[in-house]
Design a protein that fits this description.
Layout (H helix, E strand, L loop, with lengths): L1 E5 L9 H4 L4 H6 L2 E5 L1 H9 L4 E6 L4 H9 L5 E5 L2 H8 L8 E5 L6 H7 L5 E5 L5 H13 L4 E4 L9 H6 L9 E3 L20 H10 L3 E5 L17 E5 L8 H6 L2 E3 L12 H15 L4
Parallel strand pairs: 1-4, 3-4, 6-7, 6-10, 7-8, 9-10, 9-11
Antiparallel strand pairs: 2-5, 3-5
Bound molecules: S-adenosylmethionine.
The site of S-adenosylmethionine has 18 residues, from helix 11.
Length: 288
């Protein structure tokens, strides 16, 4: 099912995603994403995500051939050397290896709750718009065995090009529920008649299933991380770079927990905070 073609322009409609790499939101609306770099493209080809096309310099074709030939869907491999690719995309590239994949439909909350090993470990993000930070957080989630990522309706998609790149392709291993994309077929027991579900409502639904929702919040002196019980089913909630967790989402959580910091420091980067929280979960669950 492999078609290999040498290219000298991006005129063909199939190559448009590579010519519009600065417009990732457009890709997202089309249900696709661009993966960059040998490791990320390799992880995409090893995943269950549908792949549409790959762009490679000739010298990489033999290395990628076994992975490409193992795929069952039709994939076109476009060959272009790195210099030409940089001219066509307007980006300077380290390796000149790119691919277009399809964003899967949102994971099912029911399946996540029923099919995963207990204690459950979920992560939610509220209004997180920086794609690089989101990608780093995804990488930490996969490294520490998070079973699903819940992306609030005001957060960026983890399938934006920079998020995929910063996740190092680990996003392809993590079930994702994007609140903004949940359709009618997803209904919560706690809010059955609705079309638009919010992160706050999703947290309420999780709590109705006995999952503790814990806000990672630098501005609380009520509980520090070492005092929090993370051994049972829980969903850790992280906020945005600027405003942190919104009042509605904070109110929907069971408690707020802080990593202690000196008064001269406002907060940690969200990816770093997630790594500290997730390590503490692993420690308490004796997985370190
Ligand atoms: C850059 S911080 C947000 C800072 C923001 N100015 C605020 O007021 O919350 C981004 C997110 O990382 C997490 N975070 C950062 N430092 C933390 C800390 N010391 N304790 C708990 N969570 C932290 C929180 O989820 C926070 O919303």
């Amino acid at each position: 099912m492999l078609r290999v073609e040498k290219i000298s322009t991006f005129d063909s409609p199939e190559l448009q995603p590579y010519a519009t790499m600065r417009r990732p939101a457009e890709h997202e609306r089309q249900g696709i994403f661009v993966a960059e770099g040998t490791k990320v493209v390799q992880r995409l080809l090893e995943s269950r995500y549908p792949v549409v096309s790959v762009v490679l310099p000739d010298k990489w074709l033999d290395d990628f051939r076994p992975l490409l030939e193992a795929r069952t869907e039709p994939i076109t491999v476009y060959l272009a050397d790195k210099k030409l690719l940089e001219t066509l995309t307007g980006f300077s590239m380290f390796q000149g290896v790119l691919a277009v994949g399809k964003i899967p439909p949102p994971a099912s909350l029911d399946e996540i709750l029923s099919k995963n090993q207990k204690p459950l470990l979920l992560v939610a993000v509220d209004a997180l718009t920086n794609a690089e930070n989101l990608g780093a957080l995804v990488r930490n989630c996969v490294a520490f065995g998070v079973q699903a990522l819940i992306v609030g309706e005001t957060s960026s998609s983890p399938f934006l090009r920079r998020a995929v790149r910063n996740s190092m392709g680990t996003i392809f291993q993590l079930p994702v529920i994007e609140m903004a994309k949940l359709g009618l077929r997803h209904r919560f027991k706690t809010k059955p008649h609705t079309t638009q579900l919010t992160l706050a409502e999703c947290l309420k639904e999780l709590r109705a299933h006995g999952i503790r929702c814990i806000a990672a919040h630098p501005h609380t002196d009520k509980k520090f991380l070492s005092q929090a019980d993370l051994s049972g089913d829980c969903c850790l909630v992280f906020g945005s770079e600027g405003d942190g967790i919104s009042p509605a989402v904070l109110a929907a959580c069971d408690e707020a927990v802080a990593i202690p910091m000196p008064p001269t420091v406002d907060s940690l980067n969200v990816g770093a905070a997630a790594a500290v929280f997730l390590y503490e979960v692993a420690r308490q669950r004796k997985k370190t």
